[in-house]
Amino acid sequence: MKTVHPTRPEPKCKTGEVLLSIQGLAVSYGGIKALKGIDLEVKRGEIVAMIGANGAGKSTTLKTVVRLLPASGGSIHYDGQNLAQKSVEETVEAGISLVPEGRAIFGGLTVKENLELGAFNHKNKAFMAETVEDVVGLFPRLGERMKQEAGTLSGGEQQMLAIGRALMARPAMLLLDEPSLGIAPKLVQQIFEAVARVAASGTTILLVEQNTRLALRYAKRAYVLRTGEIAMSGPSAELAANEEIQRAYLGG
Fold first, then answer.
1. Which terminus of the chain faces fewer neighbouring Cβ atoms within 10 Å, N or C?
2. Cβ-Cβ contacts under 8 Å for 176 (sequence gap 6 or more)
3. pLDDT at 30
4. What CA–CA distance (Å, rounded) separates 96 from 132?
């Protein structure tokens, strides 16, 4: 899946350089500190995973990056741009797309209509058609169901649609929140193989995933969040071999 967008410039940083930089990020819900000053970076071209128990702050991090939640402290920079100064729409236009937990598809609309909503800022019909074709190349099941209402799809097919819709914006960076949640194992494998192909084509990916074993298999590096703080980080292979990680998340 090519990341070239007709109106959005490619990121200035080169592959292997830091694309997303989070420093001292703090987020509070009322009196609850959901994030307590985390530092995290993602280099262009990487798949980076965030793992940890429910409530650790993983989804909060993604939502704060795309400005769905306000930060109470710290900074978020994407390709040298301060995201704190941008709206949700401007963040998408900068090149970041989020696939939210629970998918949030429009069940009463068709598969095709859902995909087209993901490209609401496209003016070029030929470009939109080409992007739909690329999405169907990743997820052939969607091509077979273009006129079907999205609410009638299986959970795995809905997740494919949610990812496809996000890819319609041709993001340089894709944020994935729990893509395996509630999905049959066979379809989970297909989805992650497609995500790997997206990454191989040049899209940078920050992944939140409950299936720690799967996340560490596909990600190059990972961060372990615990009650709003980074408890551990490093190459995925090293974390997978860590006895504490094995006991807590891998059933070791």
1. C
2. 99, 163, 195, 205, 206, 207, 208, 209
3. 83
4. 18
Instruction: Report residue 117 as tokens.
Output: 């909503």
Domain assignment present for residue 62? The answer is: yes
- By residue range, what is the domain housing residue 244? 18-249
What is the residue-wise DSSP string for 76-90?
A: EEETTEEGGG--HHH
Phi, psi of 38 (to 5 degrees): -85, 150
Identify the sign of the CA torsion 78, 230, 220, 60. Answer: negative
Task: Give residue 178's identity as a one-letter amino acid code.
Answer: E
- Give a yes or no: residue 1 inside a domain: no
Tokens 């790997």 appear where?
A: 196
- Which residues does the chain have with pLDDT short of 70? 1-8, 121-123, 252
The pair of three-digit structure tokens given for residue 232, joined into one six-digit string: 């551990």
CATH number at residue 173: 3.40.50.300
Q: What secondary structure letter does DSSP report for 10?
A: P
What is the distance between the alpha carbons of residues 53 and 72, in angstroms, rounded to a whole number? 23
Structural domain contains residue 2: no
Bin 41: left if φ > 0, else alpha if -120 < ψ < 50, else beta.
beta
